[in-house]
Design a protein that fits this description.
CATH architecture of the largest domain: 3-Layer(aba) Sandwich
Number of strands: 20
Structural class: alpha/beta
Number of domains: 2
Shape: elongated
Strand content: 15-25%
Oligomer: single chain
Largest sheet: 10 strands, mixed
Distance between the termini: 73 Å
CATH class of the largest domain: Alpha Beta
CATH superfamily of the largest domain: Vaccinia Virus protein VP39
Strand order of the largest sheet: 3-2-1-4-5-7-6-8-9-10
Number of helices: 22
Length: 508
Amino acid sequence: MNANGKKTDRQHITAFGDFQTPYTLAKEICRFLRGQGMRFNSILEPNCGDGNFLLAAIEEFHGCSAVTGVDISPEHLNSAQKLIADKAEKNNVKIINADFFQAPWEDLRASLPEPLIIIGNPPWVTNSELGALGSTNTPLKSNDQGFAGLDAITGKSNFDISEWMLARELEWISGHKAVLAMLCKTSVARKVLLRAWKKELLLEKAAIYNIDAAEHFNVAVDACLLVVHGAAKRKIPHCRVYESLSRGNSCKVLGFANNSLIADTDAFERCKNLEGKSPYRWRSGIKHDCATVMELTNEGYRYRNGLGEIVELESDYVYPMLKGSQLANGLVSNPGMSMLVTQHHPGEDTNIIHSQAPKTWKYLVEHAEMLDRRASSIYKNRSRFSIFGVGDYSFTQWKVAISGFYKVLDFKALGPYRKKPVVLDDTSYFIPCDTRQEAQLLSQLYNSDLAKDFFSAYVFWDEKRPVTIKLLQRLDVVKLSEVLKLDDSLAPFLSQILPQTHQLQLFG
């Protein structure tokens, strides 16, 4: 706070996720929309801040009979009032001090004549980030996307504040002569479109225009202008994606099918016949949340941990390891690292290590403080030094694996290293295999151009983890093998994992 007890700009950004839109960008956007032939009778900005968007909208959309700006910050609203004081008739403009999550939006929305534009730049932070900072500028806690089990426990239900806001604003324009034009993270734009399409909101068309967030906001994030039009009846869900406001041709078209967001509708149409339930199950690598202790660099017959300590451990619980980065970069022939794997299946009593591998137990106890303070709730009420994402499948001699974090579809066939199975960290996914031949055949199938074309229909490369189990599991490898005429080669391996009746259904 400053000497007068008021929050500084940086503190306000921290508490509210507040990045004020530069006037030049707001002006460019409003001029662009007007150039698209858009005309409005009223303007609403639900997070108006200092008023740059309000000013630009008033200047570009002449003759609006109602202009309303809402913000939680009295300081911002004071700046907004001063900024637009000479630009509009005072009786046409309302500046309202209100919390987005408590404002009477239904009444406000009903008071604004159509056609309406809802424009602005909502906060760019997540609810957990604000909660950690002690901010109350968040919606009521709810898992309204229906995550269950581990996804809900480990934080998948965390969301951007703007996602919550934009989802509600799309409901406001559904079925109305109204347009939503909002700056937001590109990932948020996709999420709110998916929600709207799942809810079958009455929307006509949508477009995403990429914005250089580094230039305008000095942040390294993929951002865009999301523009959505309300409609009297529901239209075919699609959204054109443009490289910028100035580029006329769209890069690709997003869509909605099979209750999922489609990244590339052209690729989807080419390969949708490969969608199905694969008989193979993709698995995640081992999760331990303490790389400093559990991940070791090989130094002869000893190991160096992340603290720089040289340690001697029995081989019983130490396995050669590959990280997702090594998979993505093709560095798989010589792992060079090992992982301390304390369990072979969830729930196994780790106290057995004390008698079977006393050096390993001593090492764990010496670093217990770090292991005991692992934050994830999955470790609560479990044996001390537990891990997760481990089972018999983790220790198969052969695997087909891929990294989840890198922008590459490259599936590797992995074999044992020094007669021990290679384990993977939790940034990777794999199919456990019984033999070299099975792993090599599956890697051939998944690395085919047809498989990559299928995945490109669903993958968004700007996501933090673009490759997921959900994505990988969508491809029916049996259908793929039939198209590539490799079904006879795959059949013997499927006979080991499928009942005979299922094999007859698959291969006739």
